[in-house]
Each structure stands twice: as C-alpha cells, then as structure tokens.
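Bench log. Compound arrived from synthesis this morning; before running ITC I wanted a structural hypothesis for how NAP sits in the protein. Inputs:
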Amino acid sequence: MAMSSTKRALITGITGQDGSYLAEFLLGLGYEVIGMVRRSSTVNFERIAHIQDELTLASGDLLDEGSMIGVIAEHRPHEVYNLAAQSFVQTSFGQPVLTGDVTALGVTRLLEAIRVVDPDIRFYQASSSEMFGKVVEVPQTELTPFYPRSPYGVAKLYGHWITVNYRESYDLFATSGILFNHESPRRGLEFVTRKVSHGVAQIKLGRATELRLGNLDAQRDWGFAGDYVEAMWKMLQLDEPGDFVVSTGETHAVRELVEVAFSRVGLDWEQYVKVDEKFYRPAEVDLLIGNPERARSVIGWEPKTSFTDLVHMMVDADLEQLSRAEHRSR
Ligand code: NAP
Ligand code: F7E
C-alpha cells in the first residue's frame, strides 16, 4: 500500500460514542482515519453513517491479536486510539470473564501488535474513573490510589497498568487518559444519562408513563464527549507519554440529573420516576469527582460544556429524534 505524508490514526471502537466523535475531530484536522470494526450479524454504523465515506474501515477484534497485527501492518497508523471495550459496568457483573478478556487482555494484545509491527506508533488507552471506585481521596487526581468496584473497573485497571508497563519496559509512547463519565446524544441507551433523556422525551410525547431507575444518590462528574475526544488527541501530541485525568471538576447526583432533565420539558420528575432495585449494582461507586488541573496545565485542555447544557442538549436531541420518527410513521 502506497503511504502518503498525511497523518494516519487507527481507532478501535469507532462505532461507539467516543469513536464517532474522535473520528469527526481527526478528520477535521486532516487525518486519514482507519476504524477497526468487529464482525456482527447486522451493520451497526449509525454513529458514523454521516462520515462513513471519509473513513477506511478495517476488520478486527480485540479478542484476536492476529487481526490487529494485520490491520496495523496494512494501514501503518502513526497514532492508535484504543477506545474499544465492553464498557457497561452493569454488564461486567454478569459477564466478568468476557469483560476481562476484551477490556483488560485486549489492551495487551493491541500493545503487542504495536510492539511487533511498529514501536514508534503513539498509543492512547481509554482508562476510566471507575478505577478509583470506592474513592480514597476527593477529588481524584493522577496520584490517587485505585480501588475498583466492578469487574469493569478491575479490567480497566489492568489496561491502565499494562499501558504504563509497556511505556516503561519497551519505551513505547503509551498514554493513559483517565476519563470521567462523558455523555452525548450518541450515548448508549443503557447508560443513566441517555436512559433519562430518552425516557423524558418518551414521557413528554405520551409514549411512556414512568421511568424506572436504580440508585438516585450516586454522584458523577459528567462532561460532554465532544469536548473529551480533543483531550485524547492533545495527549498524543506531547513530547512524552503520561497519565492524565480528564474531568469537569464538578459532581452531581443522579437525582439532580433527573430534575434538570424533567424540568427541561416542564415536568415534575417525582411523578414519573420509580426506583427499581433491579438497577442497583452488587457494589456501587458512590462518588466521583476529578481534578483536571494536570490536563489544563500540561495539555491546555478545559471542558467547554456545563452539566445543565449537556442535559438540555441530550433531552432536546431525543425529543427531536423521537418526534421526527413519529412524523415519518404517520
Ligand atoms: P461504547 O459506546 O460502549 O463503545 C465501545 C466500542 O467498543 C464499540 O465500538 C464496540 O463495537 C467496541 N467493541 C466492543 N468489544 C469489542 C471487541 N471485542 N473488539 C473490537 N471492538 C469492540 O463506549 P464509549 O462510551 O464510546 O467509550 C469509549 C472507551 O472509553 C471505552 O473503552 C470505555 O470503556 C472508555 N471510557 C468511557 C467513558 C465514558 O464515560 N463514556 C469514561 C471512561 C472510559 P460494537 O459497536 O461492535 O459493539
Ligand atoms: O451509571 C446509577 C448507577 O451506567 C452511572 C461508563 O461509560 O462511566 C460509565 O460508567 C450511575 C451509577 O455509568 C441507573 O448505579 C441509577 O452509579 O451511566 P452509568 P457508570 O457506571 O458510571 C465510566 C467512567 C466508564 O468508564 C464506563 O464505561 O448511575 N444509576 N439508576 C443507573 N445507571 C444505569 N445505567 N441505569 C439506571 O437505571
């Protein structure tokens, strides 16, 4: 394959929320973007449909190291962003072994593929605030000790440490972005923010009468995914790899999220929200709040979207999407 001087990035997890925003962002910078996609019985390219013509899609799976060696050897990216994972905490309790295989060991397989094919590649690992779990310090920084509370959190911790280990053992440019929760209208429907924004829109349009949720007391540091992908790219443009917390520095309870979302459409949440223990977790992460100071000072990154604007954006998008679908079906 003939190589041009254009910068090339490989994104695993391109069909996911962050993959789609990162691909848009890198295309905007003039990158050639290769997206690794796994085989499925139906096509699930909704999030990248609008940019699909500008992308190169390559078949591979984090469970299959050979497939990633093949993708990297064929496309020779300068940067690899590992966004693929089994990313839903609740599912990780029911499928702990799969979660470990994909979300933990998958990172080693990808790092090995890079080490074997081209150790000059710059690598980004999508680490998570879930690694802080039952927090031992408030707010959390790059130096806060970890205490994961789910198989997902444990798997991400492995992914984080193997990234650090490949940096130290083989001198790879391997960076770990410790991102706190980030959301958008493209968030999966199972995550609480989107479940709420979609539920509110359905209730407003008369298609549902209640919204069943779990723990309303949990607190999270929620930002906008569109802002956060820029931090990923900035980390890979530094002279040295490292670890960076990316967060807003604010925390809000699920109850507040619900209040803001329902009031956006003029409804009182207490009349519609029912607590259902089915959505409780065997071990909960009660409070997350990150200190983004190092990201601000070292990579020059700051969040641009407030919590209220984020929730409004998501409710408005779901209302619009559901109303459009209603019109089409008439
Ligand atoms: P997401 O929407 O769940 O996307 C996950 C992606 O991983 C999808 O493209 C999925 O492909 C792909 N994938 C799953 N298993 C795979 C496998 N075996 N091989 C190859 N690809 C596979 O997740 P997200 O919210 O965009 O998050 C991106 C990354 O950041 C994840 O690693 C997540 O754990 C991490 N993270 C997320 C947050 C957050 O708040 N969003 C915070 C911290 C860290 P399919 O479409 O085929 O399922
Ligand atoms: O839960 C509570 C739930 O599933 C947030 C992933 O992107 O961020 C995400 O993980 C909180 C929890 O996200 C419901 O108990 C209440 O305390 O939206 P979530 P998460 O578990 O924080 C991290 C940083 C990641 O890395 C992950 O990949 O909300 N909650 N009621 C509920 N959660 C859900 N899903 N559904 C409920 O009905």
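What the model suggests: The CA atoms of residues 296 and 302 lie 6 Å apart. The two ends are 50 Å apart (CA to CA).
ITC booked for Thursday regardless.
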